Amino acid sequence: MASHTEALKTADGISLKLSLQRSLRRKKRNALLLVAPLFLFILVTFLFPIFDMLLRGVENSITEEILPTTVVVLADWDPALGKLPEEEVFKAFTVDGQIAAKAKIISRLGKRLNYEKSGFSSLFRKTGRKLRKFDPEKLTSTYKENLIKIDKKWGQVETWALLHRESGSYTKSYYLAALDLTQNAEGNIEWKEADSRIYIDLFIRTLWLSCLITFLTILLGYPIAYLLATLKSKTSNLLMILVLLPFWTSLLVRTSAWIALLQKEGVINDTLVAIGIISDDSRLSMIHNSTGTLIAMTHILLPFMILPLFSVMKTIDPSYVRAARSMGATGFTAFRRVYFPNTIAGIGAGGILVFILSIGFYITPALVGGVDGTMISNFIAYHISTSLNWGLAAALGAILLALVLALYILYDKLVGVDNMKLG
Amino acid sequence: MPESNSEALVRFENVQKSYDGEVLVVKDLNLNIAKGEFLTMLGPSGSGKTTCLMMLAGFEPATHGEIYLDNVPINRVPPHKRGIGMVFQSYALFPHMTIGENLAFPLEVRKMSKSDRDAKVKKALDMVQLGAFADRRPAQLSGGQQQRVAVARSLVFDPDVVLMDEPLGALDKNLREQMQYEIKHIHDRLGVTVLYVTHDQSEALTMSNRVAVFDDGVIQQLAPPDVLYEQPENAFVADFIGDNNCLGGVVTEESENSCAVQTADGSNIRANKINIAGKGQKSTLSIRPERVIVNPEDGKVPNVFQAKALELIYLGDHIRTRMEVCGNDQFYVKIPNSSHHADLNKGDVVNIGWNEYDCRALDAQ
C-alpha cells in the first residue's frame, strides 16, 4: 500500500471533508434552532438562578457595603495579638455605623453576624439606636470609650475578631456551618459543640434513608416488573395502568393518605388492635418518624423503579432462561446466572433515579417525617423560607449537589452510565 | 427407519395440548424418533410443531398423553434434568458472557472441572470453525457465526437429543443453505438425534431422514423426503411440499389401483388411486409441474388435453408456464430449458399430457 493517501476531493476540486462539513452545517444550524428556545428558557429561569443561589453560599459583601471604611482600617489589625484595635478603627466604625443606622440598614449586618455568634443582632440594634442620635461634636471621650459605653461587647477582642473575619467579600462560614464546623477566636476550624451539631447527622440520615428506600423499591419493584414484562400484553397493560395510577393523583394526597393509614388512631393501628395483635395502649408509632418517611417515600418512588426495570426486562428474550434451563441449570441458577445479570442495567437506572429523587425529597418527609424522619431538603427549605439564612441554605444545597455528583461518578466507575437503560 | 417402540429414543404417545381449554393445538400426536435420526417437523405457522418441541423440552406441559425419552416417561421431569440440547431461532446466546463462557455454561452447571471444561469448549468451537472467537461477545459476531455458536453450545454437553426451533430463520438465503449442510454434516459426524422444526420445506427436504408434515395439530404425513415429494398421501402435503397443480373433480370410476375423475368442465382424467372417499365423491388430483409433458406422442399417455399458455416466466434452467387446462387457469408446467425444448409463446394452444401414475387422486380439499 502507498504510505500516504491523497486527500479526497469532490468533482470540482474542493476537499471532500470541507464539502461534507458545508453540507452538514445547515443540518447543525437547524438542530441548534430547534433547541434554542428551550435552552434559553432553561438558562434564564433555571441555570442562572441556581448559579446565583450557589454563589450565595460564599458571598459576603454585606460587611463591605455597610462598613466600607471600617473594613479597610480593620484589615491591618491582627486579632491573634489579643489586643483591641486602634482608635481609628473605632472612629471609622462610629462614622460608618452612624450612616448605616440613619439609613436603617445596620441591623442587617447584625443579623448576618448573628448566624456566626448569637447576641450580635441585639448588639447591632442597640448600637445602631445610639449611633443614630450620636453627635461627634459633643464627644468628650475617645471613640473607643464611647463605643464601649454603648455596649461593653465592643471592648472584647472576640467581637472585633469576628468582624475582622467576616469583612471579606467571600466567606467560608456558611459551608463550615453546613458541615457542623465553626471557627474559634484564633481562626482555627473546629467541630461545633456536640449538642449543636445537626447537619452531618442530617446528611447521614438523608443518605441512609435514601439508600434504604432505593433498596426497598428494588426489592418490591423487581418482582412486579418481572410479572409485567412476562405477562400477556393485555393483562400487563392493565397492571401497568395500576402502576401508573399514583401519578394521576397529587403527591400531597398520596402522602396524606399515608397519614390516615399510619397514625396512632389510623386504619392500620385500629385494625391491628381490633384483631387483637397489639393491645390498645401499645399502638405502633409508624408516622412522624423515620418509619413514616420510609414507608411513604418507598410507595411514592416505586413507579420510578418499576418503569426502567420493566423496560429493560421487556427486552430480555425469554429464550435466554429457556436456553439456560435446557442446558441443565435449575430455575434459580438460570435466574442468577442469566436473567439477573441482564437486568442490572435496569436496576442501575431505577436505583440512581430513585436515589437522586429521594435524596432531595421534600414534601413527604415534611408531612410524615416528624423530627427524626426529616431530610436535608427540609432544612434547606427552612433556611430559605423561615430563618432566611439563604447563605446556609445555598451551602447545604451545594453540598447535596456535590454528594449526588460524587455518587453518580462512583456509579459510573462501578457500573458504567452507558449501561443505564431507561427504555 | 425403525418404527418399533423399544428402539425409539423419543416417543410421543397420544399427546394432546391445549392452551385455553377450548382449542387443541396438538391433537393426539403419536411419533417415534429413532436414535441418531434427523427428524423434521414441517408445517405452516400455528400448526403445532413448535408446541411439540416445547413439550419435549419441558417448557410446556402436555395436556394429555405421555412423552418418553429413552423409555422413561418425562412429563414430570423438569427441563434441566432432561438432558436435551436446544437451539433457538433467536440463538439465545447470553449477551453478558463471552462465547467461551456461553459454551462452558452447561458444563459449569454440571460441575465439570475447569480443565475438562476448557477442552470440551475448545473442541466444540473447533467443530464449528470458531476456535479463535472464544473471548468475543455474541454481539461482536455475525448472524451466521452466532448461529454456529448456538449449535455448538447445544451439543457441548453431549445431549442425546438436540432440538432446533427454526434455527436458520433469521439468516439470509445463501447463509441458510450453507448452514443446512453444516448442521447436516455435524449430525452425520456425531450421530446425535435431532428434532428440527421449520416452515421451510427445502430446508426440511435437504437435511432430514424423515419429515413430519404438520397441519392443524395433526401429522399429515411422516415419511422420508423423497417419498413425501413423490408420494404425498393427501392434498395438503401435495400442495405444501414443492410445486403442485391441483385439479378438483368427482370420482366416476374406481378400480384397484386407478380411478377416473371428472372435472367441472367435463374432462375425464385417469389417475393413480391413493386416497379417495369412493365413487361419486369429490377428489383433488395432484400433478407435479415437471411431470407434465408438452406435445406428447400419440398414445403414449392416457391423459391428453388442450391447453392455452397464459404466462411464461423465464427462470434460467426452466421456463415456468402458466396454462389453462381442464377449466383451471392456475396450472403450471415446467418446460426444461434444453436445446430442443418446446418453443411456446403467450396465447399458443398446445396439447399437454401426463401419466396415470403421476396424477395422484387425493382427498378433497
Using a beta-carbon cutoff below 8 angstroms, give the protein chain pair with the largest interface and the number of residues from each chain: A-B, 19 and 27 residues
Can you say what the CATH homologous superfamily of the largest domain in chain B is? Answer: P-loop containing nucleotide triphosphate hydrolases
Structural class of chain B: alpha+beta
Helix content of chain A: 55-70%
Low-confidence region ranges of chain B: 1-5
The DSSP helix count of chain B reads: 8
| Order of strands, widest sheet of chain A | 1-2
Strand line-up across the major sheet of chain B: 6-7-8-3-9-10
Report the oligomer: heterodimer
Give the CATH superfamily of the largest domain in chain A: MetI-like
Strand content bin of chain B = 35-45%
Query: Could you report the average pLDDT of chain B, rounded to the nearest whole number?
Result: 90
- Separation of the first and last Cα atoms of chain A: 46 Å
What is the 3D shape of chain A? extended
Estimate nothing, just give the exact number of structural domains of chain B: 2
Largest sheet of chain A: 2 strands, antiparallel
State the CATH class of the largest domain in chain B.
Alpha Beta
Return the string of H and E elements of chain B.
EEEHEEEHHHEHEHEEHHEEEEEEEEEE
